[in-house]
Amino acid sequence: MRQAVIRTGLETLYFTGAYIALRGLLGGVGAILTLHHVRPARADAFQPNRLLEVAPEFLENVIVELRRSGTELVSLDEMHRRLTTADFGRRFVCLTFDDGYRDNLTFAYPILKKHAVPFAVYVPTSFPDRLGDLWWVTLEAAIAAAERIDLAIAGKSCSFRCATVAEKRETYRALYWILRSLDSEEDLRAIVRDLAARHGVDPSAFCERLCMSWDELAQLAADPLVTIGAHTVNHLMLRKQPEEVVRREMLAGADAIEAALGVRPDHFAFPVGDPTSAGPREFAIARDVGFKTAVTTRPGVLFPEHRNYLTALPRISLNGEFQRLRYVQVLTSGAATALWNHFRRVDAA
């Protein structure tokens, strides 16, 4: 239902031409796009995390369309320069990839290299260290393997039937948001690990299978087109953590990248990045520890006012459920995100 509502809104803005009429007022000076996986579409019927992946041909089409429209594709450093010097002669877009998935190297990089597109990869350092916990992937695998799930969350018993694909989808949706609502991320991860153990899923296998190694990251980092950004050590939702943990995650992640790749990251992405995961405290800490920019997943385009909020920058997600160029046109116009943000230019509260 939520996807249908979003799709209807995007279609309405596009086919009425409203996004064109509003672009001059709401489009800002540029945008940062969020991607995760770039890989060919899979045939699996149960793919609750499909929103995190786009097809290689869609990525290439987006690049071609942005260039055709006169948009410049720039690095995070260039974005920072333009925001801080008010150099807004041409509209710009930055491409960013979260988590350091291997398909960024095998499928996205050849396309980006072919078109000479600068891009950034934000790396949680426990992933290339092979110690990371991709709990959302583990949850998907456990539900895929189960026909029924019984567990206790926050002292309450929960039961889910998941014999059919439809039941599995509903189970994932319900469990994901129940877990996300917990105050403790440690509890969230413990529940998912227990669920995995009961259904024969090995959580430790996902880093090796899905994420780049340090050697692979070094291969990318050697290209001047590529910026390696920090993304904490353990991909924690920082707003749920004590301040000392937040600082440690930011600094230790940057330290590990510098030690492994020889360059200290100037740019940071908040894991998950929505208001429940990063807020004013985290924005201030990111600035205090020395990052030039930090990005959220709060939807929005960039305005000149963002020069005063460089560690609370919005992004636009290229969502795997909405792989249509017309949706990208609407989203980068600022029309849809302005409605979402109640016409606030900056959302940093």
| Spatial extent as radius of gyration | 20 Å
| Main β sheet profile | 8 strands, parallel
Q: What is the number of independent domains?
A: 2
Name the CATH homologous superfamily of the largest domain: Glycoside hydrolase/deacetylase
Roughly what is the average pLDDT, rounded to an integer?
Answer: 96
| Assigned CATH architecture of the largest domain | Alpha-Beta Barrel
Extended strand count: 12
**Helix content class:** 40-55%
What are the key terms here?
alpha/beta; TIM Barrel; eight-stranded parallel β-sheet; two-stranded parallel ribbon; 14 helices; 12 strands; globular
Structural features, described:
By secondary structure, the chain is of the alpha/beta class. The protein has two domains: 2-19 and 28-132 and 213-340, Alpha-Beta Barrel (TIM Barrel), CATH 3.20.20.370; 135-198, no CATH class. It contains 14 helices and twelve strands. The protein has helices at residues 2-15, 18-26, 56-68, 76-85, 102-114, 135-145, 165-180, 185-198, 205-210, 214-221, 243-261, 280-288, 325-332, 335-340; strands at 30-35, 37-38, 53-54, 72-73, 92-98, 119-123, 148-153, 156-161, 226-230, 267-269, 293-299, 313-317. Strands 1, 4, 5, 6, 9, 10, 11 and 12 form an eight-stranded parallel sheet that branches. It has a two-stranded parallel sheet with strand order 2-3. The chain has a two-stranded antiparallel sheet with strand order 7-8. The protein is globular and about 55 Å long. The model has no long low-confidence stretch (mean pLDDT 96).
